[in-house]
Amino acid sequence: MAEWLGNGLQNRVQQFDSAWYLQKQTNPFKTYLERVFLFFFIFTLRKKLLKQTKMKATLRVTVVMMIMAFLFSSLKPNVVYGQKATFKNCSLEMNVKDNNGKKKMVCHFSADFTGMKKHDVQIYMEIESPKGTLHEYLDDDEGGEGSMRLPVQKVKNFKNKNKTDKFVLNDKIIWMFNSDLHPKKGKHTYYVRLVAYDAQTYDEIGHSNYMSYTMTGK
Fold first, then answer.
1. Which region among 78-82, 95-99, 207-211 has the lowest average model confidence (pLDDT)?
2. Residue 25, SS3?
3. How far apart are CA 19 and CA 8, in angstroms?
4. CA gap 167, 115 in Å, rounded
């Protein structure tokens, strides 16, 4: 629009030029000053119009970028922030027998979760010995070339059934058979900790205090 106004004003200058050539009686000096004044007036007006147009264009671009940012953020509805897990009432129960008489270690716990809208949680029962070092075992009894050392742990998935920001797990358990604890030779103390992870992002969101038990391996 500024360009159209500028062109229109330039056409007006050409009309004034034509008028000057027709009016021979006009004072040339006076006409010259009028032309100079008109030129600067047009130049200033056009510059202001262009500035306004640029400002409007900048504003339009800003608004469009804000809308695009909003739309892109809405494309990832499952991205949440500030996830937190708080464990409570954690305890270990050793040598619990199942229906077949097989012994197992049972970890009882409750937990509160926040910032978990549409996200589920994974809880690992990790075993350390000594404290701070994951307890590991060889996955191959022969100890051959294909054997690997793996951490002694158990993972369990829990659904956020209502897809809410906050949800609670009450009186839950994670257990392992004693045979899967792979105790080291001799008598040792083992430290157990529950660690919660966001099941979608795999970020750690909290852990319990340490619990411990003593076991003797052959």
1. 78-82
2. coil
3. 17
4. 9
Arch. (CATH architecture) of 84-217: Sandwich (2.60)
Average pLDDT over residues 5-19: 41
Both structure tokens of 201: 């992002």
Signed CA dihedral, 66, 70, 71, 76: sign only:
positive
The token duo for 27 is 């004072």
Selection from 112, 113, 93, 117 nearest residue 175 by Cα: 93
Burial of residue 20, with CB atoms counted within 10 A of its CB: 0-12 exposed, 13-18 middle, 19 or more buried: middle
**What's the chain's Rg over C-alpha atoms?**
39
Residues 122, 155 contacting (CB under 8 angstroms): yes
What are the C-alpha distances in Å from 202 to residues 93, 120, 141, 148?
28, 10, 31, 24
Structure token pair of residue 197: 């992870």
- Give yes or no for residue 23 having a pLDDT over 90: no
State residue 218's pLDDT score: 87
User: Would you say how long the chain is, in residues?
Assistant: 218
Dihedral of alpha carbons 90, 93, 99, 102, sign: positive
Count of CB atoms situated within 10 Å of the CB of 152: 20
Q: How many helical (H) and strand (E) elements, i.e. helices and strands, does the chain have?
A: 2, 10
